[in-house]
């Protein structure tokens, strides 16, 4: 994933203290490759990288001490933005029934998705949908829909395969009105490729039924092809939404990004399996993470949270809130952190951490932790509880006792103050996040 790719570049930059435009360029190359790998359309990638570069070369990244995380953040934000907001709303006609046409190539998942959508409409919105079997060409297509209908106890309208799809649609809508179905889902025929005959038939159905929604069903596994398919269907029919199927497979989902940016049509749902309840609203931010392969970063953060001793964490939180956090607690905290790996790296991965003042001064590495521990151990109980009593003779004594310098003792005391401030801010952030329903 992108996170891995960027790690290498980040390693190189780490020793340098400052990030140059050339470094950003190198990172952008990684972003580009990661997106192409995720099957995002070439032109979309090009435009996207250009946009992200502009932001990255700006102040944000160059000045940051965590350029890698900054870039991931920008890329993630821009990806989410590109894919639009959550769009799982379905039209409601003020003259029922609401008509939804399902279109797409053969095997994309139209019939399955018709069933899933009818199921969702009934379950979540309390609607009474009717399914219409308008694919008269594919052998057993009608039977397939009827089987799904039976399984869902959902009415399926069919006139066999000797009546034209347009006529089937016409009679279906009349029947739906008569029987007060509020939704009609027309399962149309597909071809192996987009062709004129297919499009003409779909146009005829559209002309007659004046559908409220035309959903293109596309197979996410087809990657690049999905974009061309989406483009021609959109040009010919004017789509109102896209359903991306088979995302339960190991596809990276790059098609989602390309389809959205090429057709400007919202992706409304994703298919996550063959079962009738495997249809989910499309969440752009989740898809962005999937495309970036950021799962590993998220896992790392989760691991960190799991590793910190729950009891200790609660106790510390309490202390932070009451501002009674002492150098002894600091020592304790360092011990916890050692179990997880470098503190600064972990903190920098946390969303919002870059906004915390003082964090940038907290460059703690393993060796330094040992030094810090030595210094704190050389303090008296009184000094640890009340660092404000520290004067130069005390500092000299501590320095001598720990084998460090007075400058280091001073630095530690400063860091401790910074950390205390930072923790107050973090605990504030956490309180806020809790109110909003927690970190995602
Ligand atoms: P149609 O030709 O467009 O009507 O496609 P179908 O609905 O017949 O689906 C073709 C195949 O894809 C079937 O085997 C479906 O079970 C399968 N399928 C559809 N949607 C999904 C999905 O979201 N995930 C998985 N794994 N399979 C799906
Ligand atoms: Mg079908």
UniProtKB/TrEMBL annotation:
Its main location: cytoplasm. It catalyses: GTP + H2O = GDP + phosphate + H(+). Its EC number is 3.6.5.4. The keyword GTP-binding applies. GO terms for cellular component: signal recognition particle. It comes from the Bacteria. Composed of three domains: the N-terminal N domain, which is responsible for interactions with the ribosome, the central G domain, which binds GTP, and the C-terminal M domain, which binds the RNA and the signal sequence of the RNC. Involved in targeting and insertion of nascent membrane proteins into the cytoplasmic membrane. Binds to the hydrophobic signal sequence of the ribosome-nascent chain (RNC) as it emerges from the ribosomes. The SRP-RNC complex is then targeted to the cytoplasmic membrane where it interacts with the SRP receptor FtsY. Interaction with FtsY leads to the transfer of the RNC complex to the Sec translocase for insertion into the membrane, the hydrolysis of GTP by both Ffh and FtsY, and the dissociation of the SRP-FtsY complex into the individual components. This is Signal recognition particle protein. The gene is ffh.
């Amino acid at each position: 994933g992108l996170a891995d790719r960027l790690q290498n570049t980040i390693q190189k930059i780490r020793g340098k203290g400052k990030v140059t435009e050339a470094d950003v360029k190198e990172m952008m190359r990684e972003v580009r490759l990661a997106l192409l790998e995720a099957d995002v359309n070439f032109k979309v990638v090009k435009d996207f990288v250009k946009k992200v570069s502009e932001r990255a070369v700006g102040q944000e990244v160059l000045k940051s001490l965590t350029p890698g995380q900054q870039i991931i953040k920008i890329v993630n934000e821009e990806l989410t933005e590109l894919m639009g907001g959550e769009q799982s709303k379905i039209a409601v006609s003020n003259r029922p029934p609401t008509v939804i046409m399902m279109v797409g190539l053969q095997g994309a998942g139209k019939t399955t998705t018709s069933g899933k959508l009818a199921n969702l409409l009934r379950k979540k919105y309390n609607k009474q949908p009717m399914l219409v079997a308008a694919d008269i060409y594919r052998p057993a297509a009608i039977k397939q829909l009827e089987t799904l209908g039976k399984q869902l106890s959902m009415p399926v309208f069919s006139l066999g395969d000797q009546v034209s799809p347009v006529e089937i649609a016409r009679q279906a809508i009349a029947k739906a009105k008569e029987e007060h179905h509020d939704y009609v889902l027309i399962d149309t025929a597909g071809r192996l490729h987009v062709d004129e005959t297919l499009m003409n038939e779909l146009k005829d159905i559209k002309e007659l039924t004046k559908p409220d929604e035309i959903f293109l069903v596309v197979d996410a596994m087809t990657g690049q092809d999905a974009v061309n398919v989406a483009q021609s269907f959109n040009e010919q029919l004017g789509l109102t939404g896209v359903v991306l199927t088979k995302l339960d497979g190991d596809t990276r989902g790059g098609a989602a990004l390309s389809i959205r940016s090429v057709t400007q049509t919202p992706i409304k749902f994703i298919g996550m399996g063959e079962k009738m309840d495997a249809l989910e609203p499309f969440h752009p931010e989740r898809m962005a993470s999937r495309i970036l392969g950021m799962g590993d970063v998220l896992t790392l953060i989760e691991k960190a949270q799991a590793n910190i001793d729950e009891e200790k964490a609660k106790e510390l939180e309490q202390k932070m809130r009451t501002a009674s956090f002492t150098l002894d607690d600091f020592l304790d905290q360092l011990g916890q952190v050692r179990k997880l790996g470098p503190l600064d790296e972990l903190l920098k991965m946390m969303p919002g951490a870059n906004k915390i003042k003082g964090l940038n001064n907290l460059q703690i590495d393993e060796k330094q932790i040992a030094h810090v521990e030595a210094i704190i151990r050389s303090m008296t109980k009184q000094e640890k509880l009340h660092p404000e009593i520290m004067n130069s003779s005390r500092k000299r004594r501590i320095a001598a006792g720990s084998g460090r310098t007075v400058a280091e003792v001073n630095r530690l005391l400063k860091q401790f103050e910074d950390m205390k401030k930072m923790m107050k801010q973090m605990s504030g952030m956490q309180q806020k996040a809790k109110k909003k329903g927690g970190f995602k």
